Amino acid sequence: MDDLDALEDWVAPLIAKLGAKERRALARKVAQDLRRSQRERIKAQQNPDGTQYAPRKPQARAQAGGIRRRAMFSKIRTAKYLKAKGSSDAAEVGFVGRVAHIARVHQKGLRARVERDGPRYDYPERRLIGYTAADRELIQDSVLHHLDTD
């Protein structure tokens, strides 16, 4: 049994006692906390296991101050693209729109076009969304805080 299953077994009886409105509020809070955690991890350029993202491919015509200096995924980690949603049944964090395709290519290390009608490239795996031990503690703290305030 992995950490996610253990967490689900721990939290299920606690939230079963809550009404639908309270479960929705709790799920929304947990999703927002997880989005913040994912955003910070993406900003730090780290996979969920703590390793650094694979670096960008060296550019043949790199300019001083160009793309090499900026961190990857600076725009897709914003709230416009990285969405948090909570319902009475689940808390979700994920990407939306065209960015979801880009995120999936990097998440799974797929082969995709660099530009429209451009060359294809085998992207290295960079886990944008993932579950860490700190996220488990974050969820536990959120649930306990929510139950304590009721």
Note poorly predicted spans.
Answer: none
Shape: elongated
- What are the secondary-structure elements, in order, as H or E? HHEEHEEH
Order of strands across the biggest sheet?
A: 1-2
Structural class: mainly alpha
Average pLDDT for all residues: 88
| Structure annotation, total helices | 4
Biased composition (Basic and acidic residues): 31-43
Protein name: Phage virion morphogenesis (Putative tail completion) protein
Region (Disordered): 31-67
InterPro entries: Phage_virion_morphogenesis (IPR006522)
Structure overview:
This protein has 150 residues and is mainly α. The chain has one domain. It contains four helices and four strands, in the order ααββαββα. The chain has helices spanning 3-16, 20-43, 98-108, 133-149, and strands at 82-86, 91-95, 111-113, 120-122. It has a two-stranded antiparallel ribbon. The longest helix has 24 residues, at 20-43. The chain starts with a helix and ends with a helix. Residues 31-43 have a biased composition (Basic and acidic residues). It comes from Onishia taeanensis. Residues 31-67 are annotated as: Disordered.
